[in-house]
User: Which sequence fits this backbone?
């Protein structure tokens, strides 16, 4: 008995203690300004000897302002630039593996992401900055890797995967993996040269490039993290916000609580805040593209005949208030998911009649005939200028819930999820694209 007790004591001492590591909590708001372009950035220390403020920088100062601007624009302007801030493990560089690499061991992926530039899972997550030039390919040979049952080869802006290093054309298809130096702007060295270089460089950087943002936390905190002087110079923006690949019951922070949620969920919903933030944030923007990536699937508890009015009230009304705040001299394109776009197109087409303006999207596959956009006129401003925007098709959520080969090839029998009552209405008007034996489910 004593031997058994001694064995039990030794076993108890050897048992590993439960882990004291607590799960890492995500910071509510990013608090890490973008280095060098932070609101309070000191480009050159005050103690450094500087030329008089009237002097410019070296031989470059002898060139006319227009020539200097053309040179800098060629160097790092007039591109589409991804700028991202996300909660993730820090990115680190490692040597490219010999196998699977291109000539001279170069990475085949955009920016080397996933091969030379990888997340270090041994380090705790944090708010991570990342920026690169957009090298999205025009087409892909394997469309199903982008979206489930994707039928056409075109890669639309809302399907961009540059931040994952995929579906990109870096330096030409005949030189895979080459030209990776073009994946980054390389502007930091110039901005650090002197105050004159910084001033000219920031102006070209922000005023000539199109900025592609997909981070809602970055968008909502942009003026705290990036110099307001630079943000005010932005003239072209692409926003791809939301989570397109989530399942029907997953929680997308952008729109969760938008349809039917608790008071706390409705308050936490970021969509209304995004719509009210954009006009004040990009006060001098000339072109804005906003892709609502979220699956706008209504609650099953909402009757079908009330879903489109709720879509208009909860989604389109805030977006249209945003367009009105931007003003009449802006080019605005808004995209929503395919099924929501169809329902809105049907609604406005019947209301506007002959005045309804619809056109196919450039580059769309004629065999599919479902990518297009229509004009939404919102009246006039105080000077009589027309205010409006183009509403175009975004993510194909139809094929996420309906098998395309059944609905497009056979067209008879089976059922189709009719989230907005669109297909029932089309059938009632004699415009159904499906056979008479197809049933529509809510």
Assistant:
């Amino acid at each position: 008995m004593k031997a058994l007790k001694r064995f039990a004591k030794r076993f108890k001492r050897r048992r590993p203690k439960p882990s004291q590591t607590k799960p890492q909590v995500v910071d509510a708001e990013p608090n890490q300004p973008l280095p060098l372009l932070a609101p309070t950035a000191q480009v050159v220390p005050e103690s450094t000897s500087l030329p008089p403020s009237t002097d410019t920088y070296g031989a470059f100062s002898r060139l006319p302002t227009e020539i200097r601007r053309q040179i800098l624009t060629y160097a790092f302007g007039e591109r589409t630039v991804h700028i991202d801030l996300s909660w993730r493990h820090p990115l680190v560089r490692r040597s490219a593996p010999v196998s699977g690499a291109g000539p001279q061991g170069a990475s085949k992926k955009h920016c080397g992401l996933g091969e030379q530039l990888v997340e270090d899972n041994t380090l705790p997550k944090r708010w991570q900055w990342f920026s690169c030039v957009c090298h999205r390919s025009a087409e892909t040979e394997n469309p199903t890797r982008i979206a489930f049952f994707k039928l056409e080869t075109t890669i639309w802006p809302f399907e961009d995967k540059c931040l994952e290093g995929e579906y990109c054309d870096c330096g030409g298809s005949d030189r895979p993996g080459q030209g990776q130096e073009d994946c980054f702007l390389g502007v930091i060295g110039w901005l650090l040269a002197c105050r004159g270089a910084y001033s000219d460089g920031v102006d070209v950087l922000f005023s000539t490039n199109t900025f592609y943002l997909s981070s809602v936390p970055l968008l909502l905190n942009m003026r705290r993290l990036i110099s307001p002087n630079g943000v005010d110079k932005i003239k072209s923006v692409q926003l791809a916000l939301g989570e397109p690949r989530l399942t029907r019951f997953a929680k997308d922070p952008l729109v969760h609580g938008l349809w039917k949620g608790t008071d706390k969920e409705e308050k936490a919903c970021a969509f209304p805040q995004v719509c009210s933030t954009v006009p004040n944030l990009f006060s001098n923007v000339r072109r804005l593209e906003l892709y609502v990536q979220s699956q706008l699937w209504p609650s099953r508890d909402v009757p079908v005949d009330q879903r489109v009015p709720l879509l208009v009230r909860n989604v389109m009304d805030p977006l249209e208030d945003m367009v009105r705040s931007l003003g009449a001299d802006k080019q605005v394109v808004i995209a929503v998911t395919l099924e929501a776009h169809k329902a809105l197109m049907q609604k406005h087409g019947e209301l506007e009649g002959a005045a309804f303006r619809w056109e196919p999207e450039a580059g769309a596959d004629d065999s599919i005939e479902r990518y297009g956009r229509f004009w939404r006129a919102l009246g006039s401003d105080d000077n009589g200028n027309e205010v409006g925007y183009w509403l175009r098709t975004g993510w194909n959520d139809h094929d996420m819930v309906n098998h395309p080969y059944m609905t497009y090839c056979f067209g008879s029998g089976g059922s189709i999820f009719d989230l907005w009552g669109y297909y029932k209405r089309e059938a009632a008007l004699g415009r159904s694209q499906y056979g008479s034996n197809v049933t529509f489910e809510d």
